[in-house]
C-alpha cells in the first residue's frame, strides 16, 4: 500500500526494529500494532520504507520523566526534525485510547492542548497508573529491556535503528 486509500488493516501486525550500539551486535525489539488508524499505517510505512522514508539509521533522541511514572523515550524524526506526517489526517481524532502502560507505543508531540499532526512516536518505559494515551497504535511485546537500556545510555544518539520492518510468517 502506498497511501491512505489503499491500506491493509494494521491491527495485529507484528513488526520489529533492530538497534545497534557502536561495536556491538544488533538487538531486536518486537512490536504488535493495535487498532487500524492512520497513525498506525504511517508507522507501518516508516518501518517498511515503502514510501521512501524509513526509521533506518535513526536514533532515539529524547528520554523523558526518568524514574517517574510514564517514563518514556521518543525516536528522532525521519525527516531531520520536522516529523512531517505521511498522511494529511493524522490527528487526535485518529485515536485508539489505551492505558499508559510500559511498552505502549503512541504518537508523540504536543502543541498547546492538541496532539500534533506528525510522524513522531514514543514508547512508555514505565506504567503511568490512571493515565491513557489517546494516540496509541502499538505495544512492545518483546525487547522492552532493550529500549530501557537505550534510555539509560549516556549517548542515545549513537544507538541506531539498523533494520526494521514486518515479521512475515
UniProtKB/TrEMBL annotation:
> Where is each PPIase cyclophilin-type domain found?
94-164
What Gene3D superfamilies does the record point to? Cyclophilin-like
Q: Name one GO molecular function term.
A: peptidyl-prolyl cis-trans isomerase activity
Pfam families given for it? Pro_isomerase
InterPro entries per UniProt = Cyclophilin-like_dom_sf (IPR029000), Cyclophilin-type_PPIase_dom (IPR002130)
For this protein, the record's SUPFAM superfamilies field holds: Cyclophilin-like
Q: What is this protein called?
A: PPIase cyclophilin-type domain-containing protein
Amino acid at each position: 500500500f502506498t497511501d491512505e486509500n489503499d491500506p491493509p488493516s494494521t491491527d495485529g501486525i507484528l513488526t520489529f526494529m533492530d538497534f545497534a550500539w557502536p561495536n556491538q551486535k544488533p538487538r531486536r525489539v518486537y512490536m504488535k500494532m493495535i487498532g487500524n488508524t492512520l497513525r498506525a499505517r504511517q508507522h507501518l510505512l516508516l518501518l517498511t520504507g515503502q514510501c521512501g522514508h524509513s526509521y533506518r539509521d535513526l536514533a532515539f533522541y529524547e528520554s523523558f520523566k526518568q524514574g517517574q511514572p510514564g517514563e518514556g523515550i521518543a525516536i528522532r524524526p525521519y525527516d531531520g526534525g520536522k516529523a512531517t506526517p505521511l498522511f494529511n489526517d493524522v490527528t487526535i481524532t485518529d485515536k485508539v485510547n489505551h492505558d499508559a502502560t510500559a511498552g505502549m507505543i503512541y504518537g508523540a508531540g504536543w502543541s498547546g492542548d492538541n496532539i500534533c499532526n506528525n510522524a513522531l512516536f514514543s514508547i512508555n518505559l514505565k506504567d503511568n497508573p490512571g493515565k491513557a494515551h489517546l494516540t496509541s497504535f502499538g505495544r512492545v511485546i518483546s525487547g522492552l529491556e532493550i529500549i530501557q537500556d537505550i534510555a539509560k545510555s549516556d549517548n542515545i544518539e549513537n544507538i541506531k535503528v539498523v533494520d526494521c520492518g514486518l515479521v512475515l510468517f
